[in-house]
Write a structure and sequence with these properties.
156 residues, 4-stranded antiparallel sheet, 1 helix, 33% helix
Amino acid sequence: MNNRQRGFSLVELLIAIAIAGILAAIAFPSFTQLRQNLQYREAARDVASALRDARARAISRNLEYKVVFEQVNRRYKMQEGNLSSNSGSWIDIKNWAIFPTEVNMNDTFTNETVTFKPNGRSDIAVAGAADTLSIRDSSSTRFTITVTPTGRVRIS
């Protein structure tokens, strides 16, 4: 054995750090995109879950339930009616849920609400049509939540 110490030289260490920096710079945009996609997916799942929960409550409690959307404020909440049909008053069941800053929505819901009847059907103004809510970024739709007249909630 020789007396020379084994280890890394400063040049080898700098090259390794440079390679790691280049790899990190290449991976960062992909990581950022992945994080944004997860935010849009989570927002879509949360809305679909609230809609499904409102439908299930309407069926189990024999009362109307609705999910109210405020597109301008990017938020939604669930309310319970006082009757099984044509409720005159509504109470908040869940507080406002707010979308993350990057997430926008665009809906075709009548009066920005989806109402579920005790038979599980949704109260859609045009018979046979489906209402939709788009989870969007600033330029395009990421996910679409569809509510059919039968009350089915689907994410695409």
